[in-house]
Amino acid sequence: MSENAIRVGEMTLDPVHVLLGVAGLAAFLLLVLLIVVIVNNAQRTEERTAQSMREHALETELVKLESRLQTLAEISVTRQSEMSRTINERLDKVSHRMGQNLTESSLKTTESLSKLNERLAVIDTAQKNITELSSNVVTLQEILSNKQQRGAYGQGRMEAIIEDALPRGAFAFQVTLSNSTRPDCVVYIPNAPDLVIDAKFPLEGFEAHRRARVETTRKDAARKIRQDVTTHISAIAERYLIPGETQDTALMFVPSEGVYAELHEHFPDILQKAARARVVIVSPNMLLLAVQTMQAIMKDVKMREQAGLIQKEVTSLMDDVHRLRDRVLKLQQHFGQAGKDIELVLTSSEKITARGRRIETLDFDDEARELEAKAKRPSKGKAKPSKPRKANGTSKQPDLLAGE
User: Fold this and answer.
1) Which one, of 162, 133, 183, 155, lies nearest residue 255 by Cα?
2) CB contact at 8 A, 194 and 246
3) How far is CA 226 from the centre of its chain?
4) Any bridge partners for residue 7, and if so which?
5) pTM exceeds 0.70
6) Domain 146-308: which CATH number of 2.30.30, 2.40.50, 3.40.1000, 3.40.1350
7) pLDDT value at position 399?
8) Is 362 helix (H, G, I), strand (E, B) or coil?
9) What does the radius of gyration of the chain's CA atoms come to, in whole angstroms?
10) Which end of the chain, N or C, is more open, meaning fewer C-beta atoms within 10 Å of its C-beta?
11) Who contacts 206 (Cβ-Cβ below 8 Å, separation ≥6)?
């Protein structure tokens, strides 16, 4: 061991060995550092290569992006032009439609205004008619307020219904009866007494009853109605119900359906009194129904009166039917004889057609054999000439073509 040995605790270290160890360690560290540097350089080279590749890829992507952006710009320009053209076309269509709509609206407005003017003219005419009707209503009210004029109004309505429903001669107006009374109308019923119709119905109490607003006034009007109508019913029963001359029932005509309904609603006792007095209260519709019933009765009576004539005409009609049947049978016989004659004519025409066909084809073998057979037969004397046949009393020539 050298003199320069280094003693560390119990260990003794040779300086040479220490230097060699330090040199080896330094060399190892240098080697490690070199390796690290080389590795770092390689990594940096790879990073540069990767970065260059990324830069190249980025440049390529940028080029593609530029081309895409350019394409997108072109597409956007094209679409913008198409959109502007479409918008312009749509604006043109909208403006055209708006123009058409405005034109149509103006035409419709003009037409509506013309119709409105026409309707206004109609309304003006209707207003004039309403004014005239109101004046007529006032006149009618004046007529109804006067007893004589009201009686003439009821008489007119009754006469119009009778004249429209019954034939002339089936009724009469203002006829004098045997007791010197003159009813408004008399209907002549065949084989029965006449039917009397009275048209003088009292309406004063009904007008007062309709206008009444106080209960006492309404009761007074109802009392007057019962008194007036009962008095009139009694007068009709006494004057116009004549045994043997008139029907045992008379008609009292009410010229208003409203008054007739008011009678049934508020005054059933008056109707009962009229029924007991054999006076029937009728409205215009009820009178029309009664007149139509009488018309049906008259028609039935006329039919019965004409029953003998109808029976005679039916007998003559049956004789004509029998003669028609006989003539049809004779015509049927003629048609049968004509059918038989037509069948004979068709047979002759078929034979003529067959002979013509044989002549056309020169087919005479059958006839030659028939002639030879006839020549071989012994003759039995001369044949008598055939007489012409008679049909229906008329002589006919023998049918040489039929071969009968």
Assistant:
1) 155
2) yes
3) 53
4) 12
5) no
6) 3.40.1350
7) 42
8) coil
9) 67
10) N
11) 221, 225, 259, 262
